From TrEMBL, chains A, B:
Superkingdom as given in the UniProt entry: Eukaryota
Gene this protein is translated from: LOC125509379
Protein's UniProt name: Alanine aminotransferase 2
Transferase recorded as keyword: yes
Cofactor: pyridoxal 5'-phosphate
GO MF annotation terms: L-alanine:2-oxoglutarate aminotransferase activity; pyridoxal phosphate binding
Amino acid sequence: MSYNKTASITAETINPKVKIFDYEPCGEIARHAERLEQEMEKSPGSRPFPEITYCNLGNPQALGQRPITFFREVLSLCDNPALLRRDETRMLFSPCAINRARKIIESMPGRNSGAYTNSQGIRSLREAVASGIAARDGFPSRPEDIFLTDGASSAINLSMQILIRSQEDGVLCPLPEYPLYSASIILHGGTMVPYNLSEDGDWGLEIFEVKRCLEEARIAGLTVRAMVIINPGNPTGQVLSITNQEEIVEFCRKEGLVMLADEVYQDNVYVEDRKFHSFKKVARSLGYDENDISIVSFHSVSMGFSGECGRRGGYMEICGFGDDVMGEIRKVASVTLCPNIGGQILTSLAMDPPKLGDGCFENFMAEKEDIRLSLAKRAKTLSSAFSSLEGMTCNKVEGAIYAFPRIHLPAAAIKAAKAEGVSPDMFYACRLLDATGIAVVPGSGFHQVSGRNKAAGTCHIRCTILPGEEKIKEMIPRLKEFHESFMNEFRDRS
Amino acid sequence: MSYNKTASITAETINPKVKIFDYEPCGEIARHAERLEQEMEKSPGSRPFPEITYCNLGNPQALGQRPITFFREVLSLCDNPALLRRDETRMLFSPCAINRARKIIESMPGRNSGAYTNSQGIRSLREAVASGIAARDGFPSRPEDIFLTDGASSAINLSMQILIRSQEDGVLCPLPEYPLYSASIILHGGTMVPYNLSEDGDWGLEIFEVKRCLEEARIAGLTVRAMVIINPGNPTGQVLSITNQEEIVEFCRKEGLVMLADEVYQDNVYVEDRKFHSFKKVARSLGYDENDISIVSFHSVSMGFSGECGRRGGYMEICGFGDDVMGEIRKVASVTLCPNIGGQILTSLAMDPPKLGDGCFENFMAEKEDIRLSLAKRAKTLSSAFSSLEGMTCNKVEGAIYAFPRIHLPAAAIKAAKAEGVSPDMFYACRLLDATGIAVVPGSGFHQVSGRNKAAGTCHIRCTILPGEEKIKEMIPRLKEFHESFMNEFRDRS
């Protein structure tokens, strides 16, 4: 009986789609940072910095952001509904949280927060989300159109699963992009159709450029089905102007493209002259209803003021699809049975937070504003610091949680990178990490330099603005010192 | 500017893979039951039964199963770590839960249970799971091989994503099957290769039958990459004998098939003469190590004594894949960033529960045994009741949470079903629901009747054993009365 492993799985026989995508925010740099951290635990003082500063991943609570008290109290009570029957609970939880938890538990199957729910999520929680959307936009939202999801990632994957039939189906995505999009499109067997954001135009979206990309894709035989727009932008930190948003809506409507609106940073806007407007609101304001345009909006509790990444809560609102399509989407959602209940609860709380008159309103608002103001301050400090460095330019961080400065590297640095077989931005990011412990993601991780991109060859890093204000103050001199010595080393050789 | 929706999404232009699979546990019968429930809310007394009894979905807590106190206390504390700093907490939580929660929180990024974790899950929780597996099997388990997941469903989807390259790749699956498998194989573009379980052999697995199916598939040009085995069985309720398990291991080893071992019902075994043995343990006991056979084992907190379905916690243990393949799997896992933290915590608690000497050990064991004994009693009562009915036979429910009786329908009933354009088992299940409010899933939902199955044309229903003992006592007379009148109606016409 000979041993036969021919059909078994190896790097050669794995699904090749898995092999061709990359996912840099959790990739090379993250792994190198973890190795350094382990090394420093074993031999403290072995590196010229006290700790690794993880600016590679948008992970607020890992960098010290405090969770919102009201959210955690409600979650804690819903996990252990027995607490709702005990008097002592009033010593540890606010009446506000107790009331909300009671209301949530009463709407749950089995009244104990451990049963499978409807695959779209618990109806009452979807009603809370829909009412939050309606209050935000001034246009109605229906609970039937809301799918609660395990974070935005699973919602985006589900959308691609529904849309993509074959490699002949294309999806327009921005460059630089959040690499979940290319990964998901590749895994679902489709073709990404990249369009370039304009760095010179504050990372805005130029319709003539998108049109050019769409037309080229059509000439190449692709059926372009949808367009991804990330607003506020990741990795770019831009907030689109309303005029720009209106142009995009008109464009998608005219071209029959489903809008996939990544709006997970809607609560992260830091500048006075820009506000967040959902694409659905912009479309409705232009007079377009469900019959005119199809829009899927993604949101999550990972960012914003909640920063509850690990909880995997989110929603998508699907407007302008027929009932039969909605039925199919529900069926696909039911294959994984339901989104996790903790994430469902959190999403309802974030979209339907305490109101004026609720006992905990003031405290909630204070915590929320503290986080927003502090992030705004950090956004400014960090982008100014980057801009002050030789050969670096950094657009204003209007929203989201990233600075995305461009670095004009000396020719010798580019040559050295080539000699090591890495991209120049990866070369810079690795040097930065080794010298300072600051982990950032090279722009190439967002495919800034790929394809026929007119910005090909430009060099960027994405750095989150998430370390606390004190930490950022410590970080900046380390960053400056490294950058100067790096530039000196390679300028002299050029 | 004409409106062009040609590329937009309709039932005709949706990904056709989405359209061809069905998922009956959340399908037709479930929707009909929900409609009835809404109707009864509006007009109470409109139906000859007091409520809908949802026996269609394995959803223990929706049917009254109580969560394990220790689990919920730990979850509640981890959600609100501020409680760990308050004295009053001791009045509401056991010291045992407080200690465990403290330990968990200390091992978390940012120490507040809201940050993204490692994509495989938090290391310390994976260590707890690995130690639980080692204690269960008597063979070592490594935290590097553990992936914490959002329930077993997402783990199964991830495995299919890794394994399936094209329609030429096949995966052996049992018939009757849990329909997640066919859905996932179809969505990932592969081909399901069904093998029949033997109803006459207590739903055991006959190697010659699997071999026949494998060979036919190979002749048809398929590369069969893996074999799914569900033990204890869903929907069949069987527990495989150790001899049968050994045969299966030898077979997969010889044929170079990856074993996909669905072991989510490992804590649901009700008969003295059968025990749960993991396939990894069976393989290791036969002397086979990672170089001999590749095994992926799926487990979750949804079933067993925890019944925490809505929490979406689970793990997969991957053994016998190379480092490069493991790297690719980690990359795919990182696209959805990380499994939800509540589910991660619960999974660690279920696999590493309180031990003798821990303050809450007795209470934990009492709760656990109560649930198991009660389920064992319900399994017996329900299968006996089914077997006592005219034309029904029901194998013993040895494990899992389902009875899967076979119904020999009168010819006139089969004719009537045909006239209505539904399968005979769907016809029976609909009649049952309308008359009694009891929702079950027809056997065809598990593809019992599909393809070249020698059992094609047999008629089954799957009924969970989850309603409480009192509820089951009420259900049985309703079931009997319906069945008698159904048989009378159609026997006389035959």
